[in-house]
Each structure stands twice: as C-alpha cells, then as structure tokens.
Amino acid sequence: MTQPKIIFLFSGKRKSGKDFISEKLLSRISSRFPPPCATIIRLSAPLKHEYASQHGLDYTELLTASQYKEQHRHDMIKWGEQVRARDPSYFIIRAVHLAKGESFPVWIVSDMRRRSDLQYFRTNYPNECVTVRVSASPDARVNRGWKFTKGVDDAASECDLDDVCAWDHDIDTSHGDEATTSALIGQLLQRCRDVGVVVT
Ligand SMILES: Nc1ncnc2c1ncn2[C@@H]1O[C@H](COP(=O)(O)OP(=O)(O)OP(=O)(O)O)[C@@H](O)[C@H]1O
After folding, report:
1. In a domain? residue 199
2. 111 Cα–ligand 1 center, Å
3. Which end of the chain is more exposed for a tag (fewer CB within 10 A), N or C?
4. Where does the sequence pass through the membrane (predicted)?
C-alpha cells in the first residue's frame, strides 16, 4: 500500500478539457519513467459502473464522450446524488480502488465536481493536494460538442465549485494552444519534483 505523494485535483465545466490535460500530464509522467508512477482516478467511474450494472446498461459506452453517455447523464446524476447524500465519500473511495491508487505515488483526479470531493481530499490528504481549474469559453466548448442541457449544466455536478476561486493552478484551454498546455504541464511536473517524484 503506497500513500500518495501528490494528488492533482482537476475540475472544470463539461468540455473544458479536464480529461485532455489529465491525459497529457499522465503521459509526461509515465512515458519517461516506466513502470508508471501515476494513475488517473475518475470519480465518475464507479458511479457509471454501478449505475450501468443496476440499470442493464453498457459501462464502457458510458465512459466515452458518446451520445449514449449524454442520453443517460441526467438520470445518472440524480441517482448519484441520492447515493452521495447518504455517504459523500462513497464514490471517491471506490474510484481510488478502481484506479489501483494504492500502487501509485501520483494520483491524477480528472473530474472533481463537488465541494464535498474537495473537502474529502483536503481532510484526508492535507499536504498532498494540488488543485487545477480548467476552463474554456462557451464557444470553444460548443465547438467540442457541448450543448447546454437543463438538469445537467445547472446541476450541482457542474456548478458546485463555481464559487471556489483559490485554485493552485488554472488554465484556459479555449484556444487549445500547445504553449499554454505545455506551460501548465511544466509547472505540475515541478510540483512532482518538489515532493521527490522523479520526472524530467
Ligand atoms: N487544450 C486543448 N487543446 C486541444 N483540444 C482540446 C483541449 N482541451 C480539450 N480539447 C478537446 O476537447 C474535447 C473535450 O475535452 P475533454 O474530454 O478533455 O473535456 P472534459 O472537461 O473532460 O469534458 P467532460 O466533463 O464532458 O468529460 C476533446 O475532444 C479534446 O480533445
């Protein structure tokens, strides 16, 4: 069992680029020093897993940025809220387990959505958390396939972190330029070096 040395917590609206930046960070950390020392933790993964098995749906399709996922997003959110109301850490603990977090010193949480998520990590890992807010203009998000959906884009899962502004890092991906992304990744790699994780 490895305790994480650093936990990157990415948040942002739908199609802001959270997953894109998380994957970039993972490949930079992992490609140079195999075996990989980082894992991506998707907090929505166990929710999708359990929702799919309870409702007879295809879990792998729910994981992709597909029409299938969009069709089920609204009901899945409602179901998740009910479970989370009983236990706010329910999906987080399962997500860490699903991503084999105990085997990796670097955790990349790609989809933090709620203040209760932030609170969980800050309470349990007070010295390891690095928060990253990812944003993009509505136009850029529309170009990536986003369409405002009532019950989704105005729900807690999208808006609960809107008032939080004390992020350790932030990035605007609207223009999708390489230089902006590389600058952020460089800063995050430095964070890893600062806690003794070997990256170049
Ligand atoms: N910085 C960027 N440069 C180029 N393309 C980007 C960038 N960020 C995101 N994209 C593209 O935008 C699309 C959506 O990005 P991504 O899946 O990372 O968003 P997300 O915030 O994880 O969305 P969701 O919450 O809906 O899962 C992807 O096709 C991705 O390749």
Report:
1. no
2. 12
3. N
4. none
Query: Does residue 61 have its Cβ closer than 6 Å to ligand 1?
Result: no
CB atoms within 10 A of CB 163: 7
Alpha-carbon distances of 159 from 84, 162, 163, 196, rounded to whole Å: 16, 5, 8, 35
Q: Which residue out of 13, 15, 74 has the highest number of ligand 1 atoms within 8 Å of its CB and is therefore the one to mutate? A: 15
Most distant CA pair in the chain: distance in Å?
46
Structure ipTM: 0.94
CATH code for position 157? 3.40.50.300
The residue length of the chain stands at 200
Question: For residue 200, is it within any domain?
Answer: no
- What is the per-residue pLDDT across 73-94, written as a single tens digit (0 to 9) for each? 888 888 998 999 999 999 999 9
Rounded to an integer, the average pLDDT of 127-144 is: 98
Mean pLDDT check: name the lowest of 16-30, 63-77, 92-106, 117-131: 63-77
CB of 11 closer than 6 angstroms to any ligand 1 atom: no
State both tokens at 156: 């807690």
Whose tokens are 């991906």? That residue is 173
44 lines ligand 1 (CB under 6 A): no
Q: Give 86 Cα–ligand 1 centroid separation in angstroms.
A: 31
176 lines ligand 1 (CB under 6 A): yes
